[in-house]
Amino acid sequence: MRKVLKNSNPTDVLNTVFGYKTFRSNQEEIIRHIIAGNDALVLMPTGGGKSLVFQIPALCLEGTAIVVSPLISLMQDQVNALKAFGVRAAILNSTLSADAAYRTTISMINGEFDLVYVSPERLNTESFLESLSRTKISLFAIDEAHCVSQWGHDFRPEYTKFSMLKERFPNIRRVALTATADKTTREDIIKTLHLEDCKVFISGFDRANIHYSVGVKDREKKQLLNFITKEHSGDSGIVYCISRKKVEDITEFLKAEGFNAFPYHAGLDKKTREQNQDRFIKEDSVIMVATIAFGMGIDKSDVRFVAHMDLPKSMESYYQETGRAGRDGLPSDAWLVYGLQDIVWQRSFIGNSTADDEHKKLECKKLNSIIGYVESVDCRRRVLLDYFDEKYPRNCGNCDNCLNPPITYDATSHIQKLLSCIYRVNVSSGSFGFGAGHFINILIGKEDEKVKRYSHDKLSTFGIGKDVSVSQWQAITRQLVIKGLIDVDPQHQTIKLTPKAISVLKDKNAKVELRKDIPKTKKPGAKEKREFASDKDSELFKKLKALRLELAKQENMPPYIIFHDKTLMEMASREPKTMSDMGKISGVGEHKLKTYGEAFLRVINEELS
Ligand code: ADP
Ligand code: ZN
After folding, report:
1. Domain at 535-608, CATH class
2. Does the CB atom of residue 44 touch ligand 1 within 6 A?
3. pTM of the prediction?
4. Is the pLDDT of residue 522 over 70?
5. What pLDDT does residue 526 have?
6. SS3 per residue for 277-316
7. Which of 225, 298, 511, 523 has the highest CB neighbour number within 10 Å of its CB?
8. CB of 118 sitting under 6 A from ligand 1
9. Average pLDDT for residues 493-497, to the nearest whole number?
């Protein structure tokens, strides 16, 4: 394949090479800005189409684009995808033998590639910089640019050395890209990479196709099973768990229920991890059960759901993890369950860490933000985007709180009952502590062994909360822990009042609204979702998918590199009959039309004859 596109128009490249009709949001503006010779910092949500922003200039400009990316799997995926579009792309990282790396470098110097993806370690070596000085370079793209920031979640020391690019290649345009928006990180990127004069492009962070929902744990395995069976049978998804042990447990559970589930965590050997990841990427309908060790650099576009079985530690990690769903723009779910335990556990984790006080304070603040999110009664999307300094103007209509508004109620009298119950018991039993369950038993008047042993059935608060269900008492307790009225000892799970609670107890005019935990039943009736379901279920779509899987296996490649679900769905609904019709389907560029067009046309014609 030869590059014949130099000096061509970005829109022509978008149409002919990638087979896409129009640019998304501000892609075109950024591309023109870069082609004109300027630097840029690009913030776009996952799946927003960041890659095209440097790939198209790379194809329009003379010379080779050098792309730094921290993750081997991501690089491999992007290079495979580019090759499938007929673009001359190569990789330079530690997976190559010395000999192969040498040959690739020589080809790079000879101008045989449009894009070369390189690891940060290699970019920092003197020998590679030397090779670059002998290469005609069109631009530098620094992907996952938030890795320069110490405050970010993926700090990579090698990234801080990229300031040398400005010194050594002062005339080459540089574009830094990231999906992590926070202001400090942004400033760090500009400072560290010397992008002082660059233009910053911030696209909205909203992932409109993702439906957010949050529930309170109540037999969590059953909740997960319900969710997957009802909403996502046959789909690929990721289930995040807090610990390795839980990953193993949930994997076994899903397997026993007949799902194609695999575990992924740092305790598994490298080979098993790679195998499991490979199956997730290359097969359809695989569920990956994982700790947060999984996901960085996973570019699988058809992940239909991301489920969190435990509370994430920050909004950043939650947004990044849920962002792995629906990169192809089709309706997808971000689903989460949490409970009191999660909050206690995460708090004690921060308390016991060896980090300095400044870091601990920051982590507490981050944790409080995610707790605020899960407890919120407002539109989830608004709360999320607000956290990233973006105003969402209305209620989204595609989250649990919008579709099924939660109920709040005046819980003052309940709260006073619970607080005075804790107060009395703790005063009478001195240093001896009890867990939340014991207090709830006293309130509902349950004469269990422990209640009797301590004569707590003789207390004036015994049975004063009979009118309230156990789950509602649990909800009240949890919300009071969050509000800082109750303290939970992370080791013994015993609870006690905080000074703040004492003032609420004494204040006769106090009024506190709480949220009622209600089982979530309604699910979006969004139009797109229904259309998607019918296309997804069509016989033709299934056959096209089967062909794709067969071709992908032959080429040892993920199926979505050949065509995305969206492209196959469009084929299934528009039923192209000629090569020229086929070329009009979004995602079918000239090269893919030549390579795969006939085979997919054959399946369509067979189905229709
Ligand atoms: P990001 O890197 O921002 O997460 P990608 O660059 O991987 O996102 O793009 C996400 C998906 O959207 C890719 O499959 C890409 O091919 C597709 N895409 C990007 N831009 C367009 C466009 N203008 N029209 C159609 N599809 C696009
Ligand atoms: Zn909403």
Report:
1. mainly alpha
2. yes
3. 0.78
4. no
5. 44
6. HHHHHHCCCCEEEECCCCCCCCCCCCEEEEEECCCCCCHH
7. 298
8. no
9. 90
